[in-house]
Amino acid sequence: MRVAVAQMTSTSSIDLNFATCQRLAREAADAGVKLLSLPECFSFIGRRGDEALAIAEPLDGPIFRRYQALARDLGLWLSLGGFQEKGPDEDHAYNTHVLLDDLGSVRSCYRKVHLFDVDVPGGPVLKESNRTAPGTQVVTAQSPVGTLGLTICYDLRFPELYQRLRFTENAQVLLVPSAFTRKTGEAHWELLLRARAVETQCYVLAAAQSGKHNDLRESYGDAMIIDPWGSVVARCPDRLVTGIAVADIDEELLKTVRRNMPIAEHRKYNIYGSDRQLSTL
């Protein structure tokens, strides 16, 4: 059950971004990959928030259909890690993580719940909620590589979501496509990813945006795959270079980790409640 995560530097050119994704998808297919995870904002990153709003479209629009055709042509499952989907009103889009199967059909959609509204010390001021509407649902999906838990970027800082995905929704593989800022990525990217893997005993697939998208925005990169014991089993050799990292999902390892460290059985619901009570999602 071979998987891959992509690392790329998206720009405001929809055509160039698609060409990059197409090249990476072909590389993954040639490597025997069954599922490729693309990062957040894989199809477009503009200089201003209103640019993303302007190109947002429904999930049957012309940009989206190109990626459906790509999945179908290569016989490859694609995790589209954050697509600008037409939102609930003219002023807001959704940041939507879409799972496509190898026929190009939509299997599941997750709209980003936690929006990145922060002023990073020494970094940019970003307020995602100005142009993005939040989602309201926890989402999993069945796939050839296991039960997937769909998340996006800033969600990584909220362990309750991942606890819910594992202990209530029975996820085995967590998808965390991202566009982490350079400042926050240096401090917390790998740390948080490995923590989510250890506390849920899941594989974590972390596709990443990297490098300078324009004069105002830069992403950290460092796409990687982490196993249920918290070990990094694959990562791009250079955090700023476009490429993929490939690994195999070892179902026996996942079972062994969960059997030898049975945290699901040791959870004290009588003290701190169920995952559904802990989370308002």
TrEMBL record:
Task: Answer yes or no on keyword Hydrolase.
Answer: yes
Taxonomically, which superkingdom? Eukaryota
What keywords would UniProt list here?
A: Hydrolase
> Which CDD domains does this entry report, sorted A to Z?
nit (cd07572)
User: Entry's SUPFAM superfamilies?
Assistant: Carbon-nitrogen hydrolase
What Gene3D superfamilies would the database entry show? Carbon-nitrogen hydrolase
What's an example of a GO molecular-function annotation for this chain?
Answer: hydrolase activity, acting on carbon-nitrogen (but not peptide) bonds, in linear amides
InterPro entries referenced in this protein's UniProt entry, alphabetically:
C-N_Hydrolase, C-N_Hydrolase_sf, Nit1/2_C-N_Hydrolase
Q: What sequence ranges are listed for the domain CN hydrolase?
A: 1-251
What PANTHER family does this protein map onto?
Answer: DEAMINATED GLUTATHIONE AMIDASE, NITRILASE-RELATED
Please state what the protein is called: CN hydrolase domain-containing protein
Ranked from the top, the taxonomy reads: Eukaryota, Viridiplantae, Streptophyta, Embryophyta, Tracheophyta
